[in-house]
Amino acid sequence: MLIIEGLTKSYGSKKAVDNLSLHIEPGEICGFIGHNGAGKTTTIKAVCGILQFDAGSITICGSSVEKDPIKCKSQIAYIPDNPDMYTFMPGVKYLNFIADVYKVKGRNKKIKKYADMFELTDDLGGLISSYSHGMKQKLALISALLHDPKLMIMDEPFVGLDPKASRKVKDIMREKCNEGGAVFFSTHVLEVAEKLCDKVAVIKGGKLSAYGKMEEVRGDSSLEQVFFELEGSL
After folding, report:
1. CA gap 173, 178 in Å, rounded
2. pTM of the full predicted structure?
3. Domain total for the chain?
C-alpha cells in the first residue's frame, strides 16, 4: 500500500529526514511518533507529493509518487493538522468543489452521510471563514473521504476535535482498513496510538529509532515508556 525506501530530505546542511524506510500493508494503521521537528510532517508531505525529496523512493499502491503523482494523489486522502481551505466559500460549495476535482459520483449522499456523522450539516451553508478550528477539521475530514481513498494520511488528526468526533474518526480509520485500505498518521497522543495502531514508527532527528508491529515495539512496557526511553537515548 505504502512503501518508503531510503527517504532523505535536507534543508541546507540539516537532514530533516535521513534514510527513512517503512512499509504499510493493506489493513494496517501505522502511527508516526516523534517530538516537534523530528521529521514527521516533512515525511508526510513527501508521501503526499507536496514536498520534493533528495533521495529515496515512495510508492503508493504500486505507483511512484515522483513518476506518477496524479495517480498517487487520486488514491490518497491527506488531512493536515491545520487545514488550508478557501475560506470565502460556504462549506457545502467547498465540498462540491472537492467532489468536482475527484469526479465523485453520488456526492450528495456522501456529503450528507459524513456531514450528519460529524454534526456539521446545519453549518454547511455558512462561510468557512466563520468556522472554528474544530469545524474546519471536520470539513477537511469530510472532503477527504468523498472519493473513498485507499490510503489515509493524517497529520495530528485529533487536534481540535471533540471526543465524539474523535471517536468517529477512529471508527472510520478502522473501517477503511477492514475494507482493505490503510492509514498512516502522526500523533502526540501516545495512548491513542497504543490502542489504535497495528504498527508504530518512532522518528528522532530524522531517523527511525523504532519501527514494527505495536506489540514488538512496546514489548512488556507501554508505548509511552518506550518513547521516552528512546528520546532520552543518544
Report:
1. 9
2. 0.91
3. 1
